[in-house]
Specification:
Blueprint: H1 3-16, E1 33-38, H2 43-51, E2 58-63, H3 74-84, E3 90-96, H4 106-115, H5 120-128, H6 133-137, H7 143-155, E4 166-171, E5 178-182, H8 184-196
Parallel strand pairs: 1-2, 1-3, 3-4
Antiparallel strand pairs: 4-5
Length: about 200
């Protein structure tokens, strides 16, 4: 039995026994929170439990490294939709220690792509077309710096309302301990103080 068959077999039983009823909620996050987190498999259950959130409490967006790399990409769009259409009032960027993105080497990824059947012609064509494959596939060297950079990019986005705090945290994938890297309230207070001070 393949993985899809396992999923569909489980799903049929899940629906037939009405297990979904315990999780029913609406589309608006009860805690007014949008979370951008890493897709690491260790965080699937650990992250919500460590945050104290349950089904219906938050909008959860996941990608490799909890990164916003482009101000007009799908992750930033998701955060803006969470704020404007789904009543999110705060944003948390949550990366984790021992993240695989800190060890990503674009040349190794491309070597594996070649081994899996992606031709050199395709890679050359992408490069000639102006796609920076190395930048696209690059990870980060320092997780704290990565969280700060992502928080800054989100906070400074021209479409993000000024009253939305953007917090940056790092979670320990073994214990669930959260370390604050960026306190969004402090950042907002500093911005407000700067705007209020005479020029």
């Amino acid at each position: 039995m393949g993985m899809l068959d396992e999923i569909l077999t489980h799903n049929a039983e899940y629906v037939a026994t009405r297990q979904y009823e315990a999780l029913q909620t609406d589309k608006f996050p009860d805690k007014g929170l949008a979370v951008l987190a890493c897709m690491d498999a260790r965080l699937v259950e650990l992250l919500p439990q460590a945050l104290g959130i349950r089904n219906g409490d938050a909008k959860l967006i996941k990608n490799a490294g909890a990164l916003v790399t482009a101000p007009w990409g799908s992750v930033m769009r998701s955060l803006l939709v969470a704020v404007y259409a789904l009543r999110a009032e705060e944003i948390c960027v949550i990366a984790h220690y021992d993240c695989g993105m800190s060890a990503i080497d674009p040349s190794e990824i491309l070597a594996q792509a070649r081994q899996r059947g992606i031709s050199d012609d395709v890679i050359r064509t992408l490069r000639v077309s102006g796609i920076d494959l190395d930048g696209f596939l690059k990870g980060f060297a320092n997780v704290e710096e990565s969280v700060r950079n992502t928080c800054t990019l989100v906070r400074q986005h021209p479409l993000l309302p000024r009253d939305v705090p953007v917090h940056g945290l790092i979670i320990d994938p073994s214990t669930g301990r959260l370390d604050t890297i960026v306190n969004g309230y402090t950042v907002m207070a500093a911005e407000n103080a700067t705007e209020a001070s005479p020029q």
